[in-house]
Amino acid sequence: MLDELSFPPIYRPCRVLPGTDVENAAAEAARGGADPASLYWLDSAERLECAIVLGPDRPFSETLAAVHVAMVALGDCLGAQVPPQVEVLFGWPDRLIVNGGLAGGVSLTVDPALWGDPSDPVPDWAVLGVKLAMMPAADAPEPGMTRQRTTLLDEGCGDLTTGDLLESFSRHFLLWTNRFLSEGLRPIADNWLPRAAKRGEAVELKLAGKEWRGKLLGLDEKGGLVLGESKTPLVPLTEVLRKPTWSLD
After folding, report:
1. How far is Cα 208 from Cα 196, in angstroms, rounded to an integer?
2. Termini Cα distance of the chain
3. By CB atoms within 10 Å of each CB, which of 9, 114, 195, 198 scores lowest?
């Protein structure tokens, strides 16, 4: 069991034991009226998992950009603690890539009815989820045997602990959320781009049964991906975030 963790006072932390789906637990609480900033976190040394209840203040299509707020916070959290030779990149829209391998990602849970609502209302609630593989599971294959997957331990970050990273992420997420609320998405987008995987390169995306091609240039004001030199230069988050594009299972 992890030691008791210390979060900024705005959070209402709730420890979740292994075997429980953290994001589902937070979503159930949100549907039941849990306060924004309720923070559910998994008591596990193998995997960092947390879910934060949000109090959306803008339309659904703009609320989805919370995944980029969380990703920038996660990037700052790791950038301050991993060795300099460890490369941390963002795979649009929701994947965290460490030294070229998938190490985790973020997700957003909302009322499913919102995905088909053309009126684009402000959600009653939303839950931001984060997962990060700290070390291989007991039954995991040898390092390098799982294609395009990795853990922080495999990449030489064995000194990092789940508790330290959870505490650090909570602080960085609070900082970036406050900037998002006061300044909009632009400062988040400007900090996302330098860590974007394949920045400035020609990319081909195949997500949610659709395909896009073009040069990766950045994020638009709603967090969609701007692809230059293409007939479809913008990939909106509403097209691709219904389910996470990644899995650690």
Report:
1. 20
2. 22
3. 9
Q: What is the mean pLDDT of residues 161-186?
A: 97
pLDDT of residue 72: 98
Residue 236, classed as helix, strand or coil, is coil
Mean pLDDT, rounded, of the chain? 93
214, 224 in Cβ contact below 8 A? no
Inter-residue contact 73 to 47 (CB < 8 Å): no
Instruction: Please give the C-alpha separations between residue 157 and each of 53, 82, 151, 199, in angstroms, as whole numbers.
Output: 29, 6, 9, 25
Q: Are strands 95-98 and 101-109 parallel, antiparallel or unpaired?
A: antiparallel
Residue 102 to residue 122: CA distance in whole angstroms: 32
Task: State mean pLDDT over 97-108.
Answer: 96
Q: Is the pLDDT of residue 172 over 90?
A: yes
Using CB atoms within 10 A of its CB, is residue 22 exposed (0-12), middle (13-18) or buried (19+)? buried
- Confidence check: pLDDT of 231 > 90: no
**CA-to-CA distance for 84 and 50, rounded, in angstroms?**
26
pLDDT at 202 over 60: yes
Strand order through the sheet with 225-228 = 202-207, 210-219, 225-228, 234-235
Predicted pLDDT at 133: 96
